[in-house]
Amino acid sequence: MTSMILPWDKITADLSNLEIIIDPIQLTKLSLDYYHFSPILYEKLKDKRGNLVVRPTNEDEIIQIAQTCLNYKIPLTVRGAGTGNYGQCIPLEGGIILDTTKMSQIPWIEPGLACVEPGVKMAAFDKKAREIGWELRMAPSTYRIATIGGFIGGGSMGMGSITYGQLRDRGNVQALRIVTLEEEPCIIELRGDEVQKVNHAYGTNGIITQLELPLAPAYPWAEIIVVFDEFMTAARFGQALGDSDGMVKKLITVHAAPICPYLTGLNDYLPLGKHCALLMVSEYDLDAFHELVSEYQGEITYLKTAQEASKGTSLLEFTWNHTTLHARSVDPTLTYLQTFYFTLEKVEHFYHYFGDEVMIHLEFIKVNGKTIPAGLQLIKFTTEERLNEIIKYHEEQGAGIANPHTYILEDGGRKIIDFAQLNFKKQVDPYGLMNPGKMAAWGKE
């Protein structure tokens, strides 16, 4: 599957009724994502480019693109806003990049459920949904610019995961419509558990054209910073807030003190040497929240009502992988990990064992009905060998690593072959044209 020998002039002519981008600067921009967070991925992916970008506006145009790819056996990579971190949307073998950002219609929103096209931006959707008192269940720190289709294809969790868990948890995606790359492309609708065939599959086995998502009741989210003298006190506070069923919350982030100076936009609220919690809590629960802060001897340095927070930069912008973004803007030698600690005892062990080499950043999430601490630690990168040693030690101590230094679907979080996704790819992409090279199991049976 070598794109160099394809007749690109003829292919471009076949798609001339669509918006096509071939400008080298734009092509480079639309071939890449935030893979450079990983020095390992940077070396492997920095030179990868598509041959052209096509921006469809509807399902019929997607079918036309799919048929063109089949006619010429062209690799096809689907892209949203490109805010991923693992090279999910970077084409390894050139070909066509299908940019979904022009597919941004919202066919309907009802109480508790909505139907959207994949290019709808998450923040724009929430603005509309809140008109009837609802919002997305979860969203990444790239919420302002990320697309819903891109999040389903390449994301996994974010703000809201303290209540609703991970995207792959049953019920978080109701239905998907996809276009296939069979000999004659067709539309397939997946419902219920069938959505897992495509959910978080990096676009390797279907072009998402429409999604139905269950929604969450929209609360007025107060945004709050609480600081602590001791890291483990901050961590225990985060766990206690997560376990407090009577308080509605959307975000519980805890940063160890060495991370705080990297969050330059919050310097006025983060005293030097203090550890901090960045939070989104329902305004209706602030009385109970203040009692919890007092119990753990925290100090509130920042509190904005939902209305006040809507006028500035949200605290979300300093959490999840935006923490990594801010830190790397100060020190580009930093990288990161993604870890399921499961217990505070493990958090405390790793905090003392690694010291400042691994700066702990916690995000509390719901897993199987229980609040657990997960981590997006900042790593002072020295060598790939040392990074692998750090990963290995975490795993030996019982932590789960979702490795952000690989673009291979199976090698990231789950560490297993998903036979439902593999078998579905055999059905809908028999030539292996969709995002080739990302699904390790493909072609190895």
UniProtKB/TrEMBL annotation:
Pfam families: FAD_binding_4. It comes from Aphanothece sacrum FPU1. It comes from the Bacteria. One of its GO terms (biological process) is lactate catabolic process. This is FAD dependent oxidoreductase. One of its GO terms (molecular function) is D-lactate dehydrogenase (NAD+) activity. InterPro entries: FAD-bd_PCMH, FAD-bd_PCMH-like_sf, FAD-bd_PCMH_sub2, FAD-linked_Oxase-like_C, Oxid_FAD_bind_N. Residues 45-218 form the FAD-binding PCMH-type domain. Keywords: FAD, Flavoprotein. SUPFAM superfamilies: FAD-binding/transporter-associated domain-like, FAD-linked oxidases, C-terminal domain.
